[in-house]
Amino acid sequence: MALKARVLYDFNSENPGEISVKENEIVTLYSEQDIEGWLEGSNTKGERGLFPASYVEVVKSDTGTTLNNNSTSGDTYQGSRYTTSPGFTAFSPPIPVQQQHVYQASQGSDDDWDDDWDDSSTVADEPGVVGGRYSGDLDSNGPATYRVSTSSVSRGSNAQQAKSSATVSRNLNRFSTFVKSGGEAFVLGEAAGFVKDGDKICVVMGQYGPEWQENPYPFACTIDDPTKQTKFKGMKSYIAYKLTPTHTQTQVNRRYKHFDWLYARLVEKFPVISVPHIPEKQATGRFEEDFISKRRKGLIWWMNHMTSHPVLSKCDVFQHFLTCNSTDEKAWKQGKRKAERDEMVGANFFLTISTPSGPSLDLIEVESKIDGFRAFTKKMDESVVQVNATTNEFARKQITWFKKEYQKVGQAFRVLGQAFELDQQAYSLGLNQAIAFTGEAYDAVGEYFAEQPKQDVDPLMDLLQLYQGHLANYPDIIHVQKGALTKVKESQKHVEEGKMDTPQAEGVKERCNIISFATLAEIQHFHQIRVRDFKAQMQQYLTEQIGFFQKITGKLEEALQKYDNA
Amino acid sequence: MALKARVLYDFNSENPGEISVKENEIVTLYSEQDIEGWLEGSNTKGERGLFPASYVEVVKSDTGTTLNNNSTSGDTYQGSRYTTSPGFTAFSPPIPVQQQHVYQASQGSDDDWDDDWDDSSTVADEPGVVGGRYSGDLDSNGPATYRVSTSSVSRGSNAQQAKSSATVSRNLNRFSTFVKSGGEAFVLGEAAGFVKDGDKICVVMGQYGPEWQENPYPFACTIDDPTKQTKFKGMKSYIAYKLTPTHTQTQVNRRYKHFDWLYARLVEKFPVISVPHIPEKQATGRFEEDFISKRRKGLIWWMNHMTSHPVLSKCDVFQHFLTCNSTDEKAWKQGKRKAERDEMVGANFFLTISTPSGPSLDLIEVESKIDGFRAFTKKMDESVVQVNATTNEFARKQITWFKKEYQKVGQAFRVLGQAFELDQQAYSLGLNQAIAFTGEAYDAVGEYFAEQPKQDVDPLMDLLQLYQGHLANYPDIIHVQKGALTKVKESQKHVEEGKMDTPQAEGVKERCNIISFATLAEIQHFHQIRVRDFKAQMQQYLTEQIGFFQKITGKLEEALQKYDNA
């Protein structure tokens, strides 16, 4: 019996080997086992190829979908299966399509105050209105929630398209994030777990407000040129990246699927931390040098943000990833299982947070800061989209138009030189040669223009892409914070109405205080790395541009000198 | 009775104030008196405006057309009248249309060996064939000859069009030039005149072959910023250029019509000398700064070529033009009349040439050199057209595309800076300012691109335009030389057939020798100034380009420094 799957969301193929599928289409699968997140099969048009596993739902009698990624490090990658369940897939890394629909069933309960949560609503600002809108019934099962993330960066010729699609993600049901992240459960005092000392995450008061306590043992990690490795006597190939953390100085090999797995763990564990997105998945051309080099650069940026983050850099699962001997499968599986069974994820994560001694935060002030940050990320996202589209288009024009224009000038001078060469009198020869050289110099300048974007635009775009990932994370983080604030307002109202006792409301407020400290610390961290990264990147960009124009100047000076003895 | 004129050639209006007219259309003239070569009237569509006087023929009973330009320096310019007569109009400077048809009636006689003279014919190379093609009847009046010159430079957006139209001029009846120039009359021994010592023009043997004897009193002449002057209490305005020759150090004022008049005299006088074209006529916008500045630059180039030419620089009419006191109308008219009555023009010009002592030139070798030069000018003309079209298009793109692309980058950075300004923490401020400055720097770079063509492309195009004028002259010069060579071959055949005696044929050969010396001297001069001019111009172009890229580098370095304290 042929294996069938129902398509959940439209997918438009963008690379050779991929096929397009439509929502509700029934496709035939060749195997239930995906290849790094892609399934092979045929659509109703009869086209055969790959499509994202997460876009389809296998049609079978026992629809028991697994919530967790139970992949073992066997020869076929079994993790990250097509699934409609929340958690893993919901936070899977961006995939190479412009619109990414991630469907997830609600984790149950508490969807009754769904409807009025959107950007333009004044819900959070006007507590009086809130109570009226939300019922207190926390037990009804809400409808499935639906998230549309459009924050992927398209680096192609169609920058305009990239612009329109790359906006901060929005949840049709915003509230789900608050619920799903565990934020609500925590605020409501439902989280419980044993916090070991090693799990403690400290927020301290810094010069600019709450911030994560610095990692006392900072380290970095290099990612060396990846190598293609094979298994099963060459039947299966994969790319292994060589990671060398500075604190162990021991190289480990990791595959993209390991990064993918780690990313999923981190997203699940840290509700108000912006986990940097790992580079896009790509089904075809995976072994091509350009792609490998691009992915490596993306991973280097990702690693930089991981090791720069005081919380992420220290966490067990990341350390396991960085330090576990690649050949010790047993140790790897052990650490993997441990991470997957980690109890201090989601709601419980907040239990591990230790806030600075001193007064609680002024929640009005917190709200104002969060609103300011929301405005900031929105504006930054727009401008990043513009810089991205503009520099992308600029790069494309340098590679095509600019190169062509300079080479046309070169060609015209060469033709002039050739015409002059018909006159072979002694006093003409020097000029003829000089003009011929000038023609070649302009040819070279054309080439310089075409080669330049790799040096300056590409690195800038890598950075922008990483930040687009962060900016896509923040709406969810803000919603968790906003959800907590709303709960506080709600509980105050409940107290006034006599539905809740004061200590209970104080508990809500206290837990909201913890979420607020964590959120503000994360925002502070974001600003700091943003300033650090953009300063460095702009310096690099300008330095490259200066070098570029100097190279042109040098070439033209060389040409000019040819006339000295002409 | 309304004054009517028949249109001889299509004219497409290119500027406001001009109207288009079609061949054979009958137009109404408002006045028979032109305004610097333009007539005012209305076409059959009822449009009113200006069209070139030389494109129409006045329809009236007494068709007595004047051969000479009898203009007096009165208040209305009366010279350069619409005329179908040869001489003045036939050699008038290029006018601002892309195809310039100059119609001229034959100066009578000798058009019977018209038909076979074209580039691909081997007439001149295969003497055996020549005699058979040409009859010896030299007295029949041939048909009107027709010259199509397409060698105008169009500096507009439509460079491609300029390319296709700008080719070396061709005479449908090539032979006419030989006749008209007086070359034939001279070769046939029909020229006669008294050559004063001061009129003597010496060809000497130089390192590279025959060349004009250098002007023993070389000089230059500056052309200062022209001023607008008025006559008749402001009723009539004109632009006066201030000329200061180095050998007199006395400034004289000259109007465009004076240049025009001088140009006509020179063309009439010197059959095998390439008289540099004066800048284009233009009916509208004559008082606009851009136009005046452009014309001045064109006149400077023209003056440079005039004073650089050993023969032209010395001749009386040019000296009169350079030195006659602008306010002494009597002296001016006297010199003007003298020049117009000069007998040593055309055929008689050759009488003034003194060849070097020593053997005559080998006419086979001369023919080969001339053929080589013809190939050279053809190739050079093509390449000049290409350089012209390419740099013109390059300039246009710098002014539009390049500017826009760099300013878009600037705008994107500025937007990013504005987004970042929403974060007003102390550690962000430096970066925000630096990014804002970077945006401005790229704006400035865009401006640099737009301003640059004026510095490098424009001067290059001015030079190319001047050379296109020379290249358009050479076919006629070559044809005079070729005509003389053919006469030699013909006379040899006549001797063989007993139709001519040997001394007569020797006379033809001797006179052809004189024309050959003059032509080779002129070609040598052309190559020398060409190498001089293109070397200097390419150096200037590259120097400007280097300065341009250094300016960009400097601006970006300035931007980079802003990040030092960010």
How would you summarize what this structure contains?
The structure is a homodimer of 566-residue chains. Chain A is an alpha+beta fold and 566 residues long.
Can you walk through the features of this model?
2 copies of one chain form a homodimer. With 566 residues, chain A is α+β, with helices and mostly antiparallel strands. Among the domains of chain A are: 56 residues, SH3 Domains (SH3 type barrels, Roll), CATH 2.30.30; 134 residues, Phox-like domain (PX Domain, 2-Layer Sandwich); 200 residues, Substrate Binding Domain Of Dnak, Chain:A, Domain 2, CATH 1.20.1270. In chain A, 47% of the residues lie in helices and 13% in strands. Chain A is built from 12 helices and 14 strands. Chain A has a 5-stranded antiparallel sheet, with no helix packed on it. The first copy, chain A, has a 3-stranded antiparallel sheet with strand order 6-7-8. In chain A, strands 10-9-14 form a 3-stranded mixed sheet. In chain A, helix 9 packs antiparallel against helix 11, helix 10 packs antiparallel against helix 12 and helix 11 runs antiparallel to helix 12. The longest helix of chain A has 60 residues. The first copy, chain A, is globular and about 105 Å long. Chain A starts with a strand and ends in a 5-residue tail after the last helix. About 20% of the residues of chain A have low confidence. Chains A and B meet through helix 9, helix 10 and helix 12 of A and helix 9, helix 10 and helix 12 of B. Chains A, B: This is Sorting nexin. Chains A, B: One of its GO terms (molecular function) is phosphatidylinositol binding. Chains A, B: Keywords: Cell cycle, Cell division, Cytoplasmic vesicle, Endocytosis, Membrane, Mitosis, Protein transport, SH3 domain, Transport. Chains A, B: Belongs to the sorting nexin family. Chains A, B: It is found in: Cytoplasmic vesicle membrane.
